């Protein structure tokens, strides 16, 4: 089982930037795809960005061109750089691990990190 700890959230003004981090342990990090999800109040959790073991990425349409997912296998960490933030990006952000490069979730959900975009 993979354990995940998210950090880096906070309060930011519209148009601002944040970088989230997710530290993973308990599995061979480098062979698994990783994903960032978010859940806004009253809404279902949604996939925001995903990165495969080889570094291929895909994004939700709502964040394309603004968010960038990356990974550092030496640090067992995945990042989410968020630029040009909008109020609708406000949510708790979570990361999770997949079984290798499948879409089968493998990790335990962490506490998440709150991102609030407001003036």
Approximately what portion of the residues adopt beta-strand conformation? Answer: over 45%
Secondary-structure-derived class: mainly beta
Q: What is the rounded distance between the termini?
A: 39 Å
Radius of gyration: 13 Å
Q: Please trace the helix and strand order, writing H or E for each element.
A: EEEEEEEEEE
The count of β-strands is 10
**Side-by-side strand order of the widest sheet:** 2-10-9-4-5-6
Largest sheet: 6 strands, mixed
Q: Mean pLDDT, rounded to whole units?
A: 95
Give the proportion of residues in helices. under 10%
Q: Indicate the low-confidence ranges by residue numbers.
A: none
So how many helices? Answer: 0
Shape: globular
Describe this structure in words.
The chain is mostly beta strands and 119 residues long. The chain contains no helices and 10 strands. 0% of the residues lie in helices and 46% in strands. The N and C termini lie far apart (39 Å). The model has no long low-confidence stretch (mean pLDDT 95).
In short:
This protein has 119 residues and is mainly beta. It contains no helices and 10 strands.
Write the layout of secondary structure elements.
Blueprint: E1 3-7, E2 10-12, E3 18-25, E4 34-39, E5 46-51, E6 57-59, E7 67-72, E8 77-82, E9 91-97, E10 113-117
């Amino acid at each position: 089982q993979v354990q995940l700890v998210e950090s880096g959230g906070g309060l930011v003004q519209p148009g601002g930037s944040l970088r989230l981090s997710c530290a993973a342990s308990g599995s061979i990090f480098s062979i698994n795809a990783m994903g960032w999800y978010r859940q806004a109040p009253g809404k279902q959790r949604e996939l925001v960005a995903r990165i495969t073991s080889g570094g291929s990425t895909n994004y939700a349409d709502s964040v394309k061109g603004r968010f960038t997912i990356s990974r550092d296998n030496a640090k067992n960490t995945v990042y989410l750089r968020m630029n040009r933030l909008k109020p609708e990006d406000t949510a708790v952000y979570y990361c999770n691990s997949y079984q290798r490069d499948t879409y089968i979730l493998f990790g335990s959900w962490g506490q998440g990190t709150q991102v609030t975009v407001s003036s």
